Amino acid sequence: MISTDILVLGSGSAGLFFALQVAKRSKLRIHIITKKERSESNTNYAQGGIASVMNEHDSYESHIRDTLIAGAGLCHEDAVRVLVEEGPQRIQDLIDLGTQFTHDESGKLHLGKEGGHSANRIVHTRDLTGKEIERSLLSAIASHPQITLLEDHFAVELLTDHQRIDKKKRKKDPITCYGAYILDEKSGKVEIVRAKKAVMLATGGAGQVYLHTTNPMIATADGVAMGYRAGAVVGNLEFIQFHPTTLYAEGARSFLISEAVRGAGGILRNLAGERFMAEYDPFRMELAPRDIVARAIDAELKHRGEQYVLLDISHLPAEKIKKEFPNIYEKCKLFGIDITKDPIPVVPAAHYSCGGVVTDLVGRTNLSNLYACGEVTMTGVHGANRLASNSLLESLVFSYRAANDLTDSLKTRPKEEEKVKLVEWDDSGTENAEEWVVIEHDRREVQQLMWDYVGIVRSTYRLKRSERRLKLISEEIEAYYRKTKVTVPLLELRNITLAALLIVRSALKRKESRGLHYMTDYPEPKPALGKKDTILQKKV
What is the mean pLDDT of residues 290-295? Predict the structure, then answer.
């Protein structure tokens, strides 16, 4: 058993920034667990930037208003206000850590503009913002004596009162989280990592639930699935953001073409060369929020029977394109596309989860000692649709607040929970997995089901059909899990399938079209339903 003060699950911006802030405020020992290499996270793949009010030409109220509009009436305004008003200082924190953002010729931060924003407020590092943020955070982590980062370790389950050897806890008391069962991928052994003070769930997104996604292979909804199984409340899982523009090319693996390309003046055309966004949002056109642009592209593809549309920035100066989008320029060149001359073939792909484990404004969940931050959460910031580049800001703002809350609460917290004894992992009687083809087949089937039936446009018939099949697959996987020694592919499949089922059930509960959740049964929004979140919780 590994014993630590704070256990952080995930090595993206939320988990790393939280760990640094806790270490700055205390002498606590912190273990960060990541299932792959330390830099492999959704943060690392974020191209566009961080949205924040950084000059006198912008205002907090404008950023708040843009976020509320994009969220289609479901944003929690108190959370949005916290995000916006505390954002600039968190960006300064990154700069103080050594993050190198792009500056203009006058030496000020270069501020881009993206869909849904009414002002230039996107702080960025060319088109590799996430990679630079991850670099600076990991550099700070590496030199910190209180922080240990373990690569190739997979969180199997959260440890709660259900794994206590003694069951002396009143039923009315909240469930407490004590750590996690962690699989050492190299040894194949599962051990307890005991967190004396708190666990931070910062495992990122769920893009791999879908067949086509901008997310890396690690984004398998592990945190949502683990949290739900442990009794954490999850909410608004039906709101999956599909990025409108990913590269359509053999072997491109849904490479993201940043929102900033449209922000810089990119034009969307069908294969006949017709600019079509005026038919769907005549005022904002290509700069409409992502849900509108994604549905517009989806409608064009279905109407015309084509496989992709074209995003054209060739009318911009070639040197400007190469300077602002060097990564996208080089990547497209690998596929024979010179974006200074040629339009880019693009299609939508699953990109971001607006729902997740429900938290308050300081990252606390309904489980005692369990915090959550980043894409795994539902803070209320995004509502029914995330405004572009608010995600990295959310990770920073709420992980900072969680670190403050945790360190403040330790001054008055009783110490008796540190003595709780927990049940060791027992895999006696299980067999080594042999049916790898079963795991791969089931994963592909789940992803295909979600893409076909629970994508950009949905219907009650499709959702119920997918629910029946996913329930059966989930039951089969659970039986397989209980008789087999755990492996990463099996654990990921288990989490993907549960998350898919929860997304479908959330979607069935929402009897309207709103934001990212578009139902052919309810084509017109129903404002009378008001601000009503979709909440799910397992009885444990």
Answer: 86
Amino acid at 448: Q
CA distances from 137 to 44, 97, 169, 284, 459 (A): 11, 7, 39, 36, 42
Which of these, 238, 399, 266, 254, lies nearest to 325 by C-alpha position?
266
Place of tokens 């596929």: 335
The 10 Å Cβ neighbour count of residue 363 is 30
| Element (DSSP H or E) covering residue 460 | helix 460-483
**Catalytic site residue from 81, 290, 386, 514:** 290
SS3 268: strand
In DSSP terms, which residues pair with 349 in a beta bridge?
243
In the chain, the domains with their CATH numbers are 2-239+354-419 (3.50.50.60), 245-348 (3.90.700.10), 436-525 (1.20.58.100)
Q: Is 126 an annotated catalytic residue?
A: no
CA 428 to chain centre: 35
Cα three-residue angle 375-533-493, rounded to 5 degrees: 45
* Whole-prediction pTM: 0.90
Q: Decide if pLDDT at 58 tops 70.
A: yes
d(CA 11, CA 17): 9
pLDDT at 144 over 80: yes
pLDDT at 105: 87
**The two three-digit tokens of residue 488, written as one number:** 């990463």
- Region 244-270: what's the mean pLDDT? 88
Residue 528, amino acid? A
The CA distance from 66 to 62, in Å, is 6
